[in-house]
Amino acid sequence: MSANTMREKLALWGVDPGPREPAMLLDFIEELAQHQPVPPAPRSAAELEQRREPLQRRLRHSLGLLPWPERTDLKVRTTGVVIRRGYRIEKLVYEAWPGLPVTAHLYLPEAHGKPAPGLVYACGHWMEAGKLAPPVQSFCATAAGLLGIVTLVYDPIGQGERLGSWRDHGHLNALLVGRSQLGLMVWESIRALDLLERRPEVDGRRIAITGASGGGLNTLFTAAVEDRFCCAIPAAYPCTFFHAMHAERDLNWEDGTDVCNQVPQVMSYAEMSDIASLFIPKPYMILTGTRDRIFPVEGTRRIAAEIQRNYELAGVPERFRFVEYDEEHGYQTSLREAAYGWLAYWLAGVGDGSPIEEPELELFDDPYPVHYAEPPLPTPGRVRDQSPTLVPTPGSLSGFCLEPSQRIAPEAHIDRLLQQDLQRLPAVPPLPERAPELALWQEEIRQRVRIVLGPFPPSQPLHTRLFNQVWADGLMAERVTFVSEKGITVPGMLIMPAEWNKPVPMTLYIGEWGKRQGIQSGLIKKLLNQGIGVLAIDVRGVGETATSDFEAATNLLMMDRPLFGQRVWDTIRGVDFLWERCYIAPQIDKGRLFIAGEGVGGLLALYATALDGRVAGAIALDIPLSYTALLPSGALFPASVYLFDVLRHYDLPHVVAACAPRPVLIRPVDGFRRPCRVQECKVMLDLIARAYQLADAGAGAFGMLTIDSTESLSHWLSQALA
Fold first, then answer.
1. For residue 110, what pLDDT band results from cuts at 50, 70 and 90?
2. From the centroid of its chain, how far is CA 392?
3. Does the pTM exceed 0.85?
4. Where are the domains of the chain?
5. For 248-281, what is each residue's pLDDT tens digit?
6. Regarding predicted confidence, which is higher, 218 or 470?
7. In 481-491, which positions are buried (b, 16+ CB within 10 angstroms) versus exposed (e)?
8. CATH classification number, 439-721, choose in 3.40.50.1580, 3.40.1280.10, 3.40.50.1820, 3.40.50.720
9. What is the per-residue DSSP string for 657-715?
10. Is the separation of the CB atoms in 1 and 473 below 8 Å?
């Protein structure tokens, strides 16, 4: 019987239906988001102050800025000067991270004989134009020319002259070493502050920060952890985490790429109002549009009320202001004019904080008149004019700091930075020298695994249901479901030999994208041919409950309940199902209960085997043997695999070693899913082999496949079952 024939029959019998519950996981995540264990509202100014240092430390850990990175030489150089009426613009190139250039404009007002206040402007997601986006230029030019504020605006990673790849805002690989995309951005804003402080034209005691959208995100978090700013204005971003998440539902955070918003673990200990309140007692303004679809005004109003209450507790209610306008998402003229008045009052003592009208301005040409910030206007008859381009229009280069041929590509620089981080991480406890100490070492690894995977829910009744039991082709097949935790039902198909005259060894199968993968690959058929029964399940978010791995994984990243950890729990619950199945009949051999998986499913099999002593062994095909294989940008594994700070705690060979002496078979690949050769992973294989030697597991207990061979897999299975 061919694999396709089996798949067709299972579908016909109703044992393996197609997608049925695509909303289940996202509904579960939203329910979880509304019940995060954030601390209650503070009751006094003293309590506010007591919370400051612990919360800042947790934020810095989430951002990947604990400890602070080294403040290396900025290596500032000026590549040009442009004179405007009332101010001049210096074109700067400097290094916020060693070896990674930053292109920036410094807007300098006409000298008035004394140091002026300063401003860091954090760009939103103007991907192509960056600092040259018209609203950005308008703000900076007005701040310098009208308000007399020295203003520094830089191209963020992946924007403007630093747009090297569309992945520049999606560095999932940074998570593995305890960094985050936003942390990279926040540090660049802190280094921009360092640069301003060193300019003789700037009064270092009067430096503010502002930005909208992604720049508002940057402003909110930078101002929360960097105490030197004296005033902050986040626009078009502050909101409750839940409202922002709900608004992005099924949009996958900028098309399944952007991970700027998803700060690891933050929702498990703080709301945005708690983060903003770290700025108390200094002046703080929040600006938003009532028609903002990305960060809904209802969520902004809620946190603004909480922040206002905290400013009142501190005795400075006048230092907080929330203003909303009939606008969509962005830093439109009305919002900018409100910000000008606030900055003039608090930085220069001018006016009463009321809006100041924006003057007529001379701006650089927008080098990319068609860009991705919004859909272009249709141009019938000239459809090619609708195509975005990364080639600047002729005559628009006057705002560039470098020649277009010198465009900066951050990806390789960040990959190098992460490799340097890897070398500085503390070493995982080495394997013991003596066999009696191995069990203690394995338990230490399991404890570290539990920390990284996040908390598991308490075990609840499985509420098992059985459907469509079919006897055919010498097999018994049935559709099953069980409850993994409240709100999550796991579907599966159970296939066993029809003859029940002796105990049947069982394998729990986990496919990266669902149980059908095991039919398509032929692995389930190979297991059945060995006389092994199979329970193939769809862990949450794949197969029958398929949804966006990126959206689910990055949302759960913020709640300290990683999607990967939840799927490990579903796998363990699959073991529960087999363990509890039919105690009145001997058909399942609970002493020979294996887990097999392919791709990410193979990783789930390894983790569940390491954590659950009921499992007799594991087969993990097409898995990376180390998280370091995922450090290069563009690796081809889904977002759920990128566990925050995992390499500080352990690596995948340690997980395999924690399974010893139970049999484990692996087929490793690199981060781009290419087969690995033995010599490429010798150090990792040596660690595993040493663990199995200490466990006295016997020859062949740990095996490695390099070629997809039915014979080698079957031979290993025969030995493992014996």
1. very high
2. 32
3. yes
4. 60-369, 439-721
5. 988 777 678 899 999 999 999 999 999 999 999 9
6. 218
7. bbbbbeebbbb
8. 3.40.50.1820
9. HTTTTS-EEEEEE-TTSPBPPGGGGHHHHHHHHHHHHHTT--TTSEEE-SS--HHHHHH
10. yes
